[in-house]
Request: fold
Amino acid sequence: MHQRVIHAIENIIQLEAAEKAFVTSLFHLKKYDRQDYFLREGQVCKAVGFINHGLVRYYAINANGEEQTYDFGKENDFMCNYSSFLDHSPSASNIQFMEDSEVLCISHEDLQRLYSGVKQGERFGRLVCEQLYVYAIKKIASLYADSPEQRYLQFQEDYPDLQQRIPQYYVSSFVGVKPPSLSRIRKRMASRQIY
Reply:
């Protein structure tokens, strides 16, 4: 049950056998049904989740009252609203399950124990924060610089295995267009691939 999260951590730092057992003790399994929430707008994010099985979407409500999907999480991904988690502020967004899911959760307090109780724990925290920062900057730059078609191509590159798991209206929201516009983008791309 914990092999995947240990493997994900070991992709970033090395863990000794005793450290693996310690880390395993800090993550607790929770099961969620499709449409359940890991986090709702206005709540404080109190845990980081690791998706053993399942799929989530991150979304916010825009000024027009519409849901705006801005990210997805799938198997072997960590999930969290990190700004809410780190400074204990109310979340401005939601994390909702799109499938029945199994998640290994670690609380803020236990994550601090991981940082201090594992030899390279602090390094793990720093490297994860650096990765999140780079990812966030790239997403912001894409919103300003890339066309919807470029954002759709990036979605396909980032999530090649999710095309059949995500309804197209969430994909269009993620790309930043209405569903009919996404259909036109897909048709244009398909016609180019014929030749």
In short: Strands lie at 28-32, 37-39, 47-53, 55-61, 67-74, 78-79, 94-97, 101-107.
